[in-house]
Design goal:
Blueprint lengths: L2 H13 L4 H13 L4 H14 L8 H13 L9 H10 L4 H48 L4 H11 L7 H13 L3 H11 L6 H10 L6 H14 L4 H10 L5 H14 L1
Helix pairs in contact: 3-6, 6-7, 6-8, 7-9, 8-9, 8-10, 9-11, 11-13, 12-13
């Protein structure tokens, strides 16, 4: 007996449509194949629930129901809506089988939703774990003596969906202290993605006074104009007055001050 035959025979067994010999054959098969027990017991439980009698509506309920239908312009037929729906969906199927079909269909969709939710949960968990690993990788690489590795760290930041305050602080530490100009410029590029955060805007303004490289000074000057960050003006004015500042960088900062105002 294959699975399909088992299901068909199980329905006939539960509905009492089997001969005595067929009943014994089914019971013997069930005893010899315990892997079918769970399915049989679940179906039997559903079947017993479906056998409970549905109370007939009282006369007063019928009157109210058909009065409502008349008010809405529907027909005055004496057959209840529930009976019509049952006939439309299931035709001449036995009541127990019809209920079983409904429950199995609902179970199918509920199972699909459960699997979908479980899959989505696993995907979200995997994303979170990936983010954590990437964040740790960034912090590790930023401490490496190789400028190439530190550049790689900054590039990894751009792949993060969300950055933590720890990552932001690490980027500013790199921007203010890294000996390699290209790494500093890359840090600015990474921080540009988070200028909607107050901690980033404030950090960029504070960083102006830490910069000695004309290239970094010019990059920050352009960024402050883009952000129209008025708090940067005082920092630029102080930096312009310092000795040893590149002439071109001074000119750029002066232009930025005018553009901000």
């Amino acid at each position: 007996m294959n699975n399909k035959e088992f299901k068909e025979m199980m329905i006939d067994y539960l509905s009492g449509n089997l001969t005595e010999d067929s009943q014994q054959e089914f019971e013997q098969f069930l005893a010899a194949h315990p892997e079918y027990h769970e399915e049989f017991e679940a179906t039997q439980l559903i079947w017993k629930g479906a056998e409970e009698e549905i109370p007939e509506p009282s006369t007063s309920m019928d009157v109210k129901f058909y009065t409502m239908l008349n008010a809405q312009g529907n027909s005055n037929e004496k057959e209840s809506f529930l009976k019509k729906l049952e006939t439309l969906l299931f035709g001449n199927l036995p009541k127990q089988l019809a209920y079983t079909v409904v429950i199995l269909v609902l179970g199918f969709f509920a199972g699909n939703n459960f699997i979908k939710e479980k899959t989505e949960s696993k995907v979200e968990l995997a994303k979170k774990e990936t983010e954590n690993v990437r964040s740790q990788l960034v912090l590790t690489l930023l401490d490496q003596p190789s400028a190439t590795q530190r550049l790689q760290a900054v590039n990894e930041v751009n792949k993060l969906d969300n950055v933590t305050e720890t990552i932001i602080k690490a980027l500013f530490s790199t921007l203010n202290n890294d000996e390699n100009v290209n790494v500093r410029l890359s840090a600015i590029e990474a921080l540009k993605n988070y200028t909607d955060m107050a901690i980033v805007r404030e950090g960029l303004v504070a960083s102006i006074m830490h910069q000695k490289s004309p290239m970094v000074q010019v990059e920050l000057a352009d960024l402050m104009v883009l952000l129209q960050e008025k708090k940067a003006v005082k920092s630029f004015e102080k930096l312009i007055k310092e000795e040893g500042v590149n002439t071109s960088a001074k000119q750029k900062m002066e232009e930025s001050i005018e553009s901000i105002y």
